[in-house]
Structure formats: structure tokens, C-alpha cells
Amino acid sequence: MKNPLIWLISFYRKNISPLKKAPCCKFVPTCSTYALEAVKVHGALKGTILSVLRILRCNPFSRGGYDPVPEKKIKKIEFSAERKFSGKKSAK
To answer: With left for phi above 0 and alpha for psi between -120 and 50, is residue 84 left, alpha or beta?
Structure first.
């Protein structure tokens, strides 16, 4: 699912975006660059959600500016060196 989205965004950037008269994106990086990076970093589902939210932020009331793709959070698994047991032995 990720590759068709990347192809679609790339198609837009190469064929549709140049038809606009002037660059009109308020944000850096542009929305299409943001979408491409979001899909590559976060995958198809979360990348699409992030891209849609970014496009919704691009409105006349927004100031724009620098808005990078958030980093992918790595889940930390904590291992405890000391495990607490109740002290009871299991009955066998």
C-alpha cells in the first residue's frame, strides 16, 4: 500500500504541481514533500493521516512556517533487573 501512495504523490509533484502559476505553499517543506516523507517514515496509514492533517492546516488563517514530519517514536521496553516475587512457592 505504501508504494502506490509514493507513486501517486510523485506523480502529483512531477505532473500536476508544475501547472500552478507560482509556488503557493505556506509551509516548509511543501505539502507534497511532507506527504512523501510522512508515508516513507510512518507507513501508509499514519503517513496519510499526517498528510491530510497538514493539508487541513494549510488555510487562510494559518501562519505557515517550518513544519517537519514528526519523528517515528520507538517503543521502549523496560526490563527490570530485579523481579519481585511474592515469595510463595507454587504447589506442584
So the answer is: beta
Looking at the predicted structure, is the pLDDT value of residue 85 above 60?
no
- The pLDDT-based confidence of 20 (bands split at 50, 70, 90) is confident
Residue 66 dihedral angles phi and psi, to the nearest 5°: -80, 125
Can you tell me which residue has the cell 501517486? 8
pTM more than 0.70 = yes
For residues 52 and 64, what is the distance between their CA atoms, to the nearest angstrom? 15
C-alpha cell, 34: 511532507
Contact call for residues 43 and 2 (beta carbons, < 8 A): yes
Q: Using the predicted structure, report yes or no on whether residue 24 has a pLDDT greater than 80.
A: no
Give the chain's end-to-end CA distance (angstroms, integer).
Answer: 51
Q: How far apart are CA 37 and CA 69, in angstroms?
A: 7
